[in-house]
């Protein structure tokens, strides 16, 4: 979960951990809630992640790529 805590700094920390897992394993799955702080942090972090070369896709898309 990205947002076990509603604090923005902790959500960012969870995203950094997600990056680490994705880099090490090739993919990672994140789960979060539709909450103001979560959405705000994601709006800031997703462009940075994309610029760093990460692809943000749905779980359905991830599962499809692993089956193919």
Write up what this structure looks like.
- With 68 residues, the protein is mostly helical.
- 63% of the residues lie in helices and 0% in strands.
- The chain is built from three helices and no strands.
- The chain has helices at residues 8-25, 36-51, 59-67.
- Helix 1 runs parallel beside helix 2 (36-51).
- The longest helix is centred in the first third of the chain and has 18 residues, at 8-25.
- The radius of gyration is 12 Å and the shape is globular.
- The N and C termini lie far apart (27 Å).
- The model has no long low-confidence stretch (mean pLDDT 94).
Question: What characteristics describe this protein?
Answer:
68 residues; mainly alpha
Summary?
The protein is mainly α. It has 3 helices and no strands.
Produce the secondary structure layout:
Blueprint: H1 8-25, H2 36-51, H3 59-67
Shape: globular
Q: Strand portion, in percent? A: under 5%
Head-to-tail CA distance between termini: 27 Å
Total count of helical runs of at least 4 residues: 3
The H-and-E topology, N to C, reads as HHH
What Rg, in angstroms, do the CA atoms define? Answer: 12 Å
Taking the sheet with the most strands, its summary is: none
Number of strands: 0
Structural class: mainly alpha
